[in-house]
UniProtKB/TrEMBL annotation:
Gene Ontology terms for molecular function: kinase activity
Enzyme class label: transferase
SMART domains xref list: S_TKc
InterPro entries: CC_SR_Kinase (IPR050339), Kinase-like_dom_sf (IPR011009), Prot_kinase_dom (IPR000719), Protein_kinase_ATP_BS (IPR017441)
Residues given in the record as ATP binding sites: 39
Pfam families given in the database record: Pkinase (PF00069)
Name of this protein: non-specific serine/threonine protein kinase
EC nos: 2.7.11.1
Species in which this protein is naturally found: Archangium lansingense
């Protein structure tokens, strides 16, 4: 990408990554003096353009879910077209793989992923490409000593609609994270996202995309069984997001578990991951676990304040 200012506003700083059909750059927004991420569509095929437009729409619809990366703007008529996304300065959970983080850290991160995934599923949609690379870590906007885990890259996500029916039978995704029934040609269901998140959980806990090492990993038996159930070959046996949330709520609200977490957890760029266990995350998780859609939305929905930023109620 050229070093010149983009649309008279965005100053390129560095390339953050490159995917199958796009590139992401860190830029400085000269209007707001904020660092943001620009995702460019480099594939000009009709399918890629449709996916890019769909991603912009889905991100816009997820604006009230703080656990999904925020869409700040877009220019679909630019050459190449781009999306303006919030910049998650601590990278992705990929950096956790093989790092042998305490199970409490992984459980806490999963609570945020579940909140984001619940919002997508509640709208009747699916992510279809959950993996550590698409779970991003950023500083909490109101509390600098806390971090948030956010779901990113909705390029393969789908919502109900006539045009998506053939696509939901496509085994698109990343090899190693795709549910077996999707590979066999079954239509995509929420349980397939649960399977992918189960692979992520196993990988974060053991460093491998399987349950083989779960038996030798120090973690509560309840969590071990939970991860294995997420990876059940039978999609009907996989727990729902609400059931998973309840399991994690019970584990993380145990005062002995909290005390152990505060002792063992390490930091991310000076921001403690133990802060994921703070009251706000647990309140949102408890509402999700209750299975009441309206209550969950009220607890995690964001509103813009006078400064234009989202703030929690």
């Amino acid at each position: 990408m050229e070093s010149r200012m983009i649309d008279g506003r965005y100053v390129p700083l560095q390339q953050l990554g490159r995917g199958g059909y796009g590139s992401v750059f860190l830029v400085q927004d000269s209007l707001t003096n904020r660092r943001v991420a620009l995702k460019f569509l480099m594939d000009a095929s009709a399918d890629a353009v449709t996916r890019f437009q769909r991603e912009a729409r889905l991100l816009g619809e997820a604006a009230n879910n703080r656990y999904v990366v925020e869409l700040l703007g877009c220019n679909l008529k630019h050459t190449p077209p781009y999306l303006v996304l919030e910049y998650c300065e601590y990278g992705s959970l990929r950096s956790w793989v093989g790092a042998q983080r305490p199970w409490q850290d992984v459980a806490a991160a999963l609570t945020h992923a579940l909140n984001g995934l619940h919002g997508i599923h509640a709208a009747g949609g699916f992510h279809r490409d959950l993996k550590p690379d698409n779970l991003l870590v950023t500083r909490h906007p109101e509390q600098p000593t806390r971090v948030l885990i956010k779901i990113g890259d909705l390029g393969l996500a789908r919502t109900p609609g006539p045009e998506t029916q053939p696509m939901t039978r496509n085994a698109a995704g990343t090899e190693g994270y795709i549910a077996p029934e999707i590979k066999a040609g079954a239509p995509f269901q929420a349980s397939a996202d649960i399977y992918s998140l189960g692979i992520v959980a196993a990988e974060l806990l053991t460093g491998e995309r399987s349950t083989q090492k779960l038996g030798q990993t120090k973690l509560p038996e309840q969590m071990r069984a939970m991860v294995r159930s997420m990876l059940s070959a039978n999609p009907r046996e996989r727990p729902s997001a609400q059931q998973l949330a309840q399991t994690l709520t019970n584990l993380l609200q145990d005062p002995h578990v909290i005390a152990e977490t505060e002792e063992q957890s390490s930091g991310i760029g000076g921001v403690l991951i133990t802060s994921l266990l703070a009251g706000g995350a647990l309140l949102a998780l408890a509402a999700l676990a209750g299975g009441d859609e309206a209550q969950w939305d009220e607890r995690v929905q964001r509103f813009r304040g006078p400064d234009g930023k989202f703030k929690s109620e």
